[in-house]
Design brief:
The complex is a heterodimer. Chain A is mostly helical. Chain A is built from 27 helices and two strands. Helices cover 70% and strands 2% of the residues of chain A. Chain A is globular, with a radius of gyration of 31 Å. The chains are: A mainly alpha, B mainly alpha.
């Protein structure tokens, strides 16, 4: 029963759903587009069930039915193949992707009937974007003809395509195949961030996401080319990931892949990962990506696509491991990102952006773990994070459903109005903050432990540095999450979209718990957010599950040694740090604050501004690099020279031709006297040459 | 020896006979109808020819040959047609774009009769270029194609149309002059115009000029056509001012004549020179890619923007051919051929959608557009697919060509290929920014009355979208054929490049 076709079905089911919705329902049966939601839910549900089977078969029964890859493109001796690479990493990702996607689709079937199409969000300047901002001549907003049911079909078509692409990415057996789906998830991200394409901010954010991640893809592409140029003479199985990983020691020994080459290849792939996972310094697109519908943020920009970067490093982990320098870069970038993103989360007033920064920060933790060699731990954190982060985003959508805004300054007092949303959001926050015994605690603690141990026992200075960065970020994470929780749910209600001066009046305020189909996925996700860390990776043997089962299963893939076990003193320290973050948040944001947030904000005004302006990275990239240096510099100069030099030369040549012709024409004037004169002069000259020549 | 299968002759003369019939008997909408019927038949015929080509067997097939068509002893020209794996996909491409061009000019109302007549002549001439195996005949078709294009631009164009038409002609003729000298020199060195024999004969002949001179004489004509920096400035003018149908044909197949010539003549007859001068091709290719992309982002006229993007994309063809030097010449050259085919459909689609937008909105000035996706979801989807294919998104044919070029050229030209990869980011920049400004954002009130594509407009868009996706998802349909044709050419080049060092 468990065979290769079944594994392929995981990928093809959502793809068929996409084809059905986009090619048949949307063009021909738009009046019944409401069925597109159930189609997506059913197909992804089936994928989820098969993924669970695959996960069990792969990790417990060690059953791998996948055959050889098939030829996709043959050019002479060169063959490019597509196939499935099924190992514990893939199996884990399959469960994460289909599981979160299923919950999000169910949530969306209701949410997208009544979407938040008209909320204002903070733009790059931190100012609120308004639709009345600079209306040039007749650029008034026209109500899109599309709003209504067609949006529904388009939404589920994109979501199905995204799910299929993400599944294709994690299953890919060839580097080029991986790159194909890598780009396709980028496309879906573009389409879904820009889902409300009539809103300038959404259209700009979509473009920004695509281009910034493309900068990362440039690195991926270089790594791919370099790896190919080094190995094309060695392998018959070109760019097959398993082959490369397996034969890496041999290739290194034979000198095919030197230390320098390995470092370059690893860094190239990592640049791709930086782009996709929103790591520093290519993080700028991810907060803006919150312009997309909230379920999209939950699925793509929190739980799945952004983890593709972490997955990529995990996929090529042997290459990274072989290069000390590359590992150091990964660890440092991860550590810096973890802290850096957390600082920006401290001051944001937009609930989705707080979650976005927290995502960037948590992805930093995963990278950090990879960089210090704790591969299994990194993927374990990816696994737990997916559940509680998706939960938190769905919670923010639920809050938006009630208040019509995402600005926490206009929320408050929602705890009593929407108890289920509150409780699930609280669970997600505790899990994210890493409070015992929730899921996030176990995975985050292992990261801290590994970096601490490798720093103190192993004497790795880098590990020690990133440990310090990570523990600081733990404090901030706990603080900003509970700041958000208090601003949203405690105190008095502050008016929602009715009071929010920049929110569009369309977002209605109807305080109350969200409908059944939205609450159910949140409740379901809350369960793994509590227990999955403990179940999947228990500190000791538990009900037949081995101690550290998940981490060990993953590490075993690459024959890594068993990592550090649970360490009570360190766990106590990290919990204490998190609790103090929570305590500070309570002190500052409870209804009658002990410490006033405003006074702190005033005292630390310059710091607050820098954080609020996101360290001016957007100004640097878009203002300086893109506008000044490229658009008004290089591109302007090229354009000018093309018109005024290259094309001018052509005209000059043409002019010369015309005028030179005119000059010669002077002699062809048809006057016999003129011709006779010239002839006589010629005879005289020739005669003179004869006479005086020698 | 006379061989005659007739299919290729039919493919050339079917549109030309159609044009004659229109010229003699038909007017207005009847001319349009006959043009549609003719191009439809031509599409069926070229598809049939493409499918009939036996890639297992390889070599030249479907040969039509009358020896001594111009029968002087000192100047013997054969009527010699045939296709191989290199030309078969390009013949198919011409068939596809022919019918697309007729649909693209569906709303032409000025001098309809002549418009459709010239379109048909153009299609016949281009097929002649791709199928001629006699060098002189090749040259005749090469020149014949200029006449319809000149009229199409100068009569139905916009803006400075006479200037642009003239510029197009002068540039091409300049290249042709060099090409003619090269062709004649080769003839007087080897005593044959037979393009299938010339590669072998050149190798053994006592050439009247050094081979590298002949190489440059012939390649310069192709370089202007492709176009290669610094001979590219005719292209933005011609494209911008040409009517939609002419732009589609110009970008779709006329530029490909340059690339085709580089394979058929430069690479196949001068394998040593193409390796020795591959540094020049790589350099110019890189300039085309980056310089072209930098200029593209500054353009405010939609058609001019696409025209410059063509300059950038044709740089990839050069880069692919420059792979001749390395061990992966096969990949690079196949990538370059794929890029020619795929650019034909992608840029054809870009010009087509932009042409329709222009017809409806009466402007191509980007700042005057915006939010059109609201009014024309179908055209928006068409432009989006074309744009994404143009930036090399996987799943579209653009990706297949780009990745093979990169993988093929990198082993030979590390730095050039790496720098060219920056083009991937720059292309994403100008394409997505263009789409954002034209299609997204709030819709303008004055565009309230715009309608989406009509049925005759949807058909060509659908044809091109389908061909972009089919080749993108299953490239073997085209790449296997190209591979058959390029195999002998690459074999010669590689044996020189690897042995010559």
């Amino acid at each position: 029963m468990f065979n290769e076709q079944l594994v392929w079905a995981i990928f093809f089911l959502p793809l068929i759903s996409f084809a059905l919705i986009s090619l048949i329902i949307r063009p021909f049966f738009n009046q019944i587009s409401v069925v597109s939601g159930p189609i997506a839910v059913l197909s992804i549900g089936a994928s989820f069930v098969i993924s669970i089977i695959t996960f069990i078969e792969t990790t417990i029964n060690h059953n791998n039915p996948v055959g050889d890859p098939k030829n996709w493109l043959t050019i002479g001796n060169f063959e490019l193949q597509v196939g499935i690479l099924l190992d514990p990493l893939t199996a884990t990702m399959l469960v994460v992707v289909t599981g979160v996607s299923l919950m999000v689709q169910i949530y969306s079937t209701f949410y997208m009937k009544n979407p938040e199409s008209h909320h204002g969000t903070e733009n790059q300047d931190g100012k609120r974007e308004t639709h009345s901002a600079k209306p040039p001549d007749d650029k008034q907003e026209v109500q899109p003809a599309e709003l209504g049911q067609p949006v529904y079909a388009r939404y589920f078509a994109y979501m199905s395509l995204f799910t299929a692409s993400m599944l294709g990415l994690v299953m890919a057996s060839n580097v080029v195949q991986l790159f194909v789906f890598w780009e396709l998830v980028g496309l879906c991200s573009y389409l879904l961030i820009g889902f409300w394409f009539h809103r300038p901010a959404a259209a700009a954010a979509a473009k920004k996401a695509f281009i910034v991640t493309r900068v990362g893809d440039f690195g991926f592409l270089l790594a791919l080319m370099y790896l190919f140029s080094k190995t094309y003479q060695e392998n018959i199985n070109y760019l097959d990931i398993q082959t490369i990983n397996d034969q890496l020691p041999g290739l290194v020994q034979a000198g095919t892949l030197g230390a320098g080459a390995l470092t370059l290849i690893a860094i190239g792939f990592f640049v791709g990962a930086i782009g996709k996972s929103g790591q520093f310094p290519l993080h700028t697109w991810l907060p803006d990506a919150m312009e997309g519908p909230t379920p999209v943020s939950a699925l793509i920009h929190a739980a799945t696509m952004v983890t593709a970067g972490v997955f990529l490093v995990g996929r090529f982990f042997p290459i990274f491991q072989a290069s000390q320098d590359a590992m150091m870069v990964v660890a440092l970038v991860g550590g810096i990102t973890a802290l850096f993103a957390a600082t920006m989360g401290l001051v944001s007033n937009d609930i989705k952006r707080v979650l976005a920064y927290s995502t960037v920060s948590q992805l930093g933790y995963m990278m950090l773990a990879l960089g210090i060699g704790a591969y299994g731990v990194a993927i374990f954190h990816l696994f737990t994070h997916a559940f509680f982060k998706a939960l938190l985003f769905l919670g923010s959508g639920s809050v938006n459903h009630a208040t019509g805004t995402f600005d926490m300054r206009f929320m408050g007092g929602l705890r009593k109005k929407m108890p289920l949303t509150y409780i699930t959001f609280l669970i997600g926050s505790l899990s994210l903050a890493g409070i015992f015994p929730l899921a996030g605690f176990w995975s985050k603690d292992e990261i801290l432990l590994n970096s601490f141990m490798s720093g103190t026992d192993g004497g790795e200075i880098i590990s020690l540095i990133v440990f310090v960065l990570a523990i600081m970020a733990v404090f901030m994470t706990a603080f900003y999450m509970f700041r958000a929780l208090f601003m949203t749910f405690e105190g008095e209600f502050r008016g929602g979209s009715e009071k929010d001066p920049e929110a569009k009046p369309h977002g209605p305020v109807h305080l109350g718990e969200s409908p059944f189909l939205m609450v159910v996925p949140m409740v379901i996700l809350a369960v793994p957010a509590v227990i999955i860390g403990f179940i999947a990776n228990p500190p000791g043997n538990l009900l037949g599950i081995e101690a550290h089962w998940m981490v060990h299963t993953l590490d075993h893939m690459y024959h890594l040694p068993k990592g550090e076990a649970f360490n009570i003193p360190l766990a106590a320290v990290s919990t204490l740090v998190a609790l103090s973050g929570i305590a500070l948040a309570i002190a500052m944001y409870k209804p009658k604050p002990i410490i006033s947030a405003e006074s702190i904000g005033k005292t630390l005004k310059p710091l607050h501004t820098i954080l609020y302006k996101k360290y001016y990275f957007d100004e640097l990239y878009e203002g300086v690099f893109v506008r000044q240096i490229y658009y008004r510099g290089i591109a302007l100069a090229s354009d000018w020279s093309d018109r005024n030099i290259v094309d001018r030369i052509v005209n000059i040549v043409g002019w010369l031709g015309a005028n030179f012709g005119g000059l010669i024409r002077q002699f062809q004037n048809g006057q016999i006297q003129m011709y006779a004169t010239v002839t006589s002069i010629g005879i005289i000259v020739i005669a003179a040459m004869f006479i005086f020549g020698d | 020896m006379t061989e005659f299968s007739g299919l290729l002759t039919l493919a050339i003369f079917l549109p030309i006979v159609g044009a004659i019939l229109i010229a003699l008997f038909l007017n207005g909408k009847n001319a349009r109808t006959l043009a549609l019927i003719t191009t439809l038949a031509e599409l069926a015929l070229t598809s049939y020819i493409f499918l009939l080509y036996d890639k297992e067997k390889g070599g030249y097939q479907l040969v039509d040959k009358f020896e001594g068509w111009i029968p002087f002893d000192t100047f013997r020209v054969d009527y010699f047609l045939g296709i191989d794996g290199l030309s078969a996909p390009l013949v198919l491409l011409t068939g596809i774009l022919g019918i697309v061009a007729v649909f693209a000019s569906w709303s032409v109302s000025v001098r309809m009769k002549e418009h459709f007549m010239w379109l048909l002549v153009l299609q016949g001439a281009v097929i002649g270029v791709f199928t001629s195996l006699d060098f002189f005949l090749f040259f005749l078709f090469w020149e014949l194609e200029l006449i319809p294009m000149f009229f199409l631009i100068s009569i139905w164009g916009t803006g400075r149309k006479e200037y642009s038409a003239m510029k197009f002609i002068i540039f091409t003729i300049l290249g042709s002059a060099f090409l003619l000298i090269g062709i004649l020199s080769l003839y007087f060195s080897t005593n044959t115009f037979d393009m299938t024999l010339l590669p072998d004969k050149i190798a053994g002949a006592n050439l009247i000029m050094p081979a590298s001179v002949l190489f440059f004489l012939t390649i310069i004509g192709f370089a202007i056509k492709l176009p290669v920096f610094p001979f590219h400035t005719w292209l933005p003018d011609a494209h911008t001012d040409a009517p939609t149908a002419a732009s589609v044909m110009l970008a779709g197949v006329l530029l490909k004549m340059g690339g085709y010539g580089m394979f058929r003549v430069s690479a196949s007859m001068f394998p040593e020179q193409i390796v020795d001068y591959s540094w020049l091709l790589a350099t110019l290719g890189l300039i085309n890619i980056l310089y072209g992309a930098a200029i593209t982002i500054r353009q405010t006229d939609l058609k001019r923007l696409i025209a410059y993007s063509s300059v950038s994309h044709m740089g990839f063809v050069l880069l692919g051919i420059a792979a001749a030097k390395g061990g992966t010449a096969e990949l690079g050259m196949n990538g370059a051929a794929l890029q020619m085919f795929t650019h034909g459909t992608i840029t054809g689609l870009l010009f087509l959608t932009v042409g329709f937008i222009y017809e409806k909105a009466h402007t191509r000035y980007i700042p005057d557009l915006g939010g059109l996706a609201n009014r024309m979801p179908f055209l928006a989807a068409g432009l989006l697919v074309a744009g994404l294919a143009s930036l090399g998104l996987p799943g579209t044919s653009g990706f297949v060509a780009e990745i093979t070029i990169f993988m093929g050229s990198f082993p030979a030209w590390h730095w050039f290929a790496a720098l060219a990869a920056i083009g991937v980011v720059l292309t994403a920049g100008y394409i997505l920014w263009m789409i954002q400004r034209v299609m997204f954002g709030p819709q303008l009130l004055r565009h309230n009355n715009l309608s989406d594509a009509s049925i005759p407009e949807m058909i060509p868009v659908a044809i091109l979208v389908a061909s972009i996706l089919v080749v993108g998802i299953y490239p073997a349909v085209i790449s296997d054929v190209f591979n058959t044709g390029l195999d002998p050419i690459v074999g010669e080049i590689t044996s020189y490049a690897m042995g010559g060092k």
